[in-house]
Records
---
Amino acid sequence: MDDETFRAWAHRAADWSVDYLAGVGERPVRAQVAPGEIFRQLPAAPPTEGEPMERIFSDLDRVVMPGMTHWQHPRFFAYFPANASPPSMVAEFVTAALAAQCMLWQTSPAATELETRVMDWLRQMIGLPEGFSGVIQDSASGATLAALLTARERALGFTGNAKGLAGGPVLRVYASAQVHSSVDKAVRIAGFGDANLVRIPVSGPLHGMDPDALDAAIRADREAGLTPAAIVACLGGTSIGACDPLEAVAAVARRHDVFFHVDAAWAGSAMICPEFRDLMRGAEAADSLVFNPHKWLFTHFDCSAHFVRDPKALTDTLGIRPPFLRTLGQDGFVDYNEWSIPLGRRFRALKLWFVIRSYGVEALRGMIRDHVAWARELAGIIAADPDFELTTAPILSLFTFRYAPAGADDLDALNARLVERINDDGRTYLTQTRHDGRFVIRFQVGQTTTTRADVMTAWAAVREIAAGLRAG
Ligand code: PLP
């Protein structure tokens, strides 16, 4: 492709993107295709000769788009958001043009130094004290794995990498059942073994882990000759937004000298609003904390902010310096590949820099405050509706509910059908979870372009579909 053709297609892609986002609210939120429908339209063999871009681009609309679920739809209330924004997209375009591999300081000094700077901006924005260093990871899962590997090495006096784990002590990790499955996965990959993830019971309105039960579990393990290695707390668990009492958990971690990691993947973004920071009190005592600007800070996936108190512990765990990565005379600068599991790294800091500068902190706060306010308002409406039950109160912008009309039996099955019908209908998109043994429907507000009217339109659609379900 020559320069002028590239220019024309880059403009066309920009126009397509603006038009797509302007009209995305008219599309069904969740893809409405059957399994295999897209695959069957794709030729089994690759083209031998190049095809005209015009044809490729028209196949984007004809073949691909019907199979897309629209995460940037203003009535996307499923899972957690993967929200984004125009400044982030512009930065992603530039990042794609640069196509830089930012694994070492030398392979793009600006990428490393911008990352250090914007991570410190983020640290200030969420109210973490000085003394934390930040790195952008590909995902919260990757950050939590890096944290648990560090915890493992710390518990083993940094000998696990050298000698392996065989014949070593049994290492234990403590978390409530409200943490995301990325913790289970990290426990497995880091070699702790599923059986050594100790579940601590939760209580209270925030469904947080009981610090006394945590303390007792650690004492019992020590007495049994096991080695407590890490506590993982959640600040905004995936299912219902559970928040562990970080201050009390931190005190237990300190008492027993156990590594303390906080997964704030979703809720961390809301900590830019000082009024929500009660939830994070105690996080300043953590060894590491992760949150995802790619969830709720208007920055494209992938962008996971990982803060660590002791970067040397992380680089002693993950850093490997083969001769082919030496940067003669420049070794020893921050080489972020040593902070992460993959070697290769995209220039992820650029989009954060664009977003934070373009909006400013106050506007970012305003959007998150709106989301929380609208979620609370709708939760109040649902609590007052005799046909519905608010099953968990809002934690920030997430709550759960279920349809419970008088006389209905098997509410689990009824609500499962309701979710299916809502998502087939397409006006909004909701997903489910289980809480206290019951099937409940999650509702979270966090999309960039969502308005209060979108929240209320979604609710009207849910009520209408629920009424039809009973009638039919
Ligand atoms: N932690 C929490 C609380 C989450 O909700 C999620 C994803 O929704 C994750 C971790 C995993 O995030 P990622 O996709 O960045 O690995």
---
Amino acid sequence: MVATQERTLADKLRLDFPILYQEINGQPLVYLDNAATSQKPLVVLEALQDYYRRDNANVHRGVHTLSSRATDAYEGSRDKIAAFVNASSRQEIVFTRNATEAINLVAYAWGQSTLQPGDEIILSVMEHHSNLIPWQMVAQRTGAVLKFVELTDTQEFDLDHFRSLLSDRTKLVSVVHVSNTLGCINPVEEIVAIAHTHGAKVLIDACQSAPHMPLDVQAIDCDWLVASGHKMCGPTGIGFLYGKLDLLRSMPPFLGGGEMIADVYLDHATYADLPHKFEAGTPAIGEAIALGAAIDYLTGIGMDKIHAYEEELTAHLFRRLAEIPELKIFGPQPKANGSGRAALASFTAGDVHPHDLSTILDQAGVAIRAGHHCTQPLHRVIQAQSTARASLYFYNTTQEIDTFVAALKEAIAFLAGCLGSTVGSADSVIWEISLSRRSCCSVWELVWKGDRLLRLT
Ligand code: C6P
């Protein structure tokens, strides 16, 4: 038999992720919550530990050996990120705590100093709260106006509607590359080209694309791009902002303090050159270094290989989910080969509450996310209070998808049986849920009415 790409990629790489080799509730862990955060390979765990065991010192401050080792590794990590996104200069990469902080940096440093009353900011209805709230706050402070691109019939970014929103008042377009809920892959190169013809700047939220596909900021031609390290095999507490050099130079600092200064007097100061102007205070040194190790790891595998393998997983996931008629899956359908959307599926199953699904799947060792995934306005648009979401990464296998789908079928049958049908006494149902499924969080939302068990919402 010819080995498939899945065998050679996921099977080989899974050994790098010790966390995956454990049992949850007596079942092997199937981790399908990668859009929330990815697992970390040994090389990343070791890089973090090595830094604290061997090199721990503050950066840019000391001339002693430990400090220069820490500084070299920290700045080396910046070089790796610059190469990873194909920035034209290492000065274009600013370390932040996460993507959320990177967007806030742009909103405060650029937005607040640039936007005037009546200026327009275009976002889309599918934005994560992190790419919405900072702009709401800036709009409230400056008098700028927010406009929103709607969805097409296939629940993708509506380019025609986008075109219709642009005017000479548009100063900023800030959109997500890959939706964490719909899984659609937005045409960012086209979006940027169109926005630039109107003189607008463009920020790309690459949280859900940077871990999964090759990124080239020069090809996209975006003005800023943000990502979080913890979704791409790196630790929490570290992310980055890419910005075009001249633009970053023109922006005032975000936070003030040590590290970001050139000369300080009692009544004023001059600021450090890029990127340090935007890195006030002692940074997350170990985390930045470990993110560098994650980038080495991903680059070593090849982002094109990761993307291709995830397309295979997507095709398998959607084929298997199609066996469950109760499911409503949001976002576009993948093509037959799995291309055209990200390796995640957000769905509802009739009246079954996503939290119940997630709780019961956890009993089968399967980790998925349930809720609004920080896209509440989008959930209103798609008319779902919350969704369940399975999100994959390159260390997942088709066998894990099969385990998930089997557990999902069982969970739906079980919960649909509880809800709105004659199932004996309320006590026995609740007793059965709590006995067989440990603590079902939403048991308390269930209420017995006559011979039917209903949900209290
Ligand atoms: N989405 C999810 O489960 P931070 O918290 O800064 O690392 O990432 C914020 C963020 C921004 N944009 C997109 C598209 C995202 O998906 C996220 C994080 C997680 O979907 C947590 S809500």
